[in-house]
Write a structure and sequence with these properties.
The protein is of the alpha+beta class. It has four helices and 24 strands. The strands form six sheets. Strands 1, 18, 19, 20, 23 and 24 form a six-stranded mixed β-sheet that branches. Strands 13-16-3-12-15-14 form a six-stranded antiparallel β-sheet. It starts with a helix and ends in a 7-residue tail after the last strand.
């Protein structure tokens, strides 16, 4: 019985030794961690600068009543495109038409008075020549004729004023553009003190105003003297780039003493009406001549207290932690200014499973489609 127990214990011990030995061999034979690598690329990237800007219509008109009266039929729907000189509002014209008719009659009366004064002056002149009239009578008729001329001119001026007042009962858009909502409904009494009836803005082209510091403006002027002026693009609220390129056409003549900046203006075509007066956008200035720089995918770079770093795989599949200096990010690619050369294989996936000096099993990352 004792011998059987001893044999059983020995068998168990042998099995345990075998299990430990097998586990150790399995641990030693564990494969190296798999990682995705991609070579650092030499990419042509132009320097950029971004500014906060605001769109402003080239032309913007507030339509107001210039005479007093009841507002007539509205000739547009809110948001319509209107043409230059298109009628958009009317004010009851009857009172002003009556004033015109009255002034026409007054002018005709003054014209008749002048005709009579001319005849009287002609008779006085003939009598004076024949020595049958007096100089006093001639002077009287001359004075009456001059007075009649003055009265006629005054009547004509009053008629012109009445015609102008009548013309104000028809409110036209002085520009072509989109009209906003009407602030007053038909039937309401309006006048010069009624405020804005509606606003018309031109939408294409459209301007974008943005502030630039003195230092940035000096750099831009020097670059413009060396080569072509920078390209002007817009970044919209959803992060997309507006397809139309702009052109800088004005720099303000004064500097804001509070910000030490100047307002710069760029003009863009806006045929698709994506830009609206007052809209906030990001203005992107980009050099025309890009420079070749080393880039890696943004996810390849990590950051700790010391700074940015990444992992590089050598020809023996050993990873090395590499400290780098970085620049701008463009389209998911990060510019590496120091610490990396073109063609070096960089780990872009699997960094959590590796450490400096470890052997890995690298696989090439699939090629990314060109943007």
């Amino acid at each position: 019985m004792i011998e059987q127990r001893s044999m059983l214990a020995a068998l168990v011990a042998a099995c345990m030794v075998t299990a430990f030995a097998t586990g150790g061999l399995a641990q030693q034979a564990a494969p190296p961690p798999a990682v995705l690598v991609q070579p650092a690329a030499l990419t042509a990237i132009a320097d950029q600068a971004e500014f906060i800007g605001r769109a402003a219509a080239v032309d913007k008109v507030e339509l107001r009543a210039r005479v007093k009266g009841f507002l007539g039929e509205r000739k547009f729907n809110d948001g319509d495109m209107v043409k230059k000189d298109e009628v958009v509002f009317t004010i009851e014209p009857e009172t002003y038409q009556a004033a015109v008719d009255q002034k026409v009659a007054q002018r005709d009366s003054m014209q008749a008075a002048l005709t009579n004064a001319d005849l009287q002056l002609q008779r006085a002149t003939e009598l004076l020549r024949s020595n049958t009239g007096t100089k006093q009578t001639y002077d009287q008729r001359l004075s009456e004729q001059l007075q009649a001329k003055a009265n006629l001119e005054d009547a004509r001026a009053q008629l012109r004023d009445a015609e102008i007042q009548l013309s104000y009962t028809t409110i036209r858009s002085p520009i072509a553009g989109r009209i906003g909502r009407a602030a007053v409904s038909p039937g309401n009494l309006v006048g010069p003190d009624s405020g804005v009836l509606a606003t018309v803005v031109s939408e294409s082209p459209i301007r974008v105003l943005f502030p630039v510091t003195q230092r940035e403006l000096l750099d831009a002027k020097r670059d413009a003297q060396i080569g072509d002026p920078p390209q002007v693009r817009l970044k919209l609220a959803d992060g997309s780039i507006y397809k139309e390129k702009g052109k800088i056409d004005f720099i303000d003549i004064t500097v804001d003493s509070k910000t030490d900046g100047q307002i710069v203006r760029a003009t863009f075509d806006n045929k698709d009406n994506l830009l609206t007066d007052g809209q906030t956008v990001r203005v992107v200035l980009e050099e025309n001549k890009p420079q070749k720089v080393v880039t890696v995918p943004q996810q390849a770079v990590a950051l700790d207290q010391t700074g940015p770093y990444l992992f590089v795989v050598d020809d023996k599949n050993v990873v090395h932690l590499r400290r780098i200096k970085t620049g701008i990010v463009r389209g998911g690619q990060l510019v590496v200014t120091e610490g990396l050369k073109e063609g070096e294989k960089v780990v872009i996936q699997g960094q959590q499973r590796i450490r400096d000096g470890m052997t890995v099993a690298p696989s090439a990352a699939p090629a990314q489609p060109k943007q």
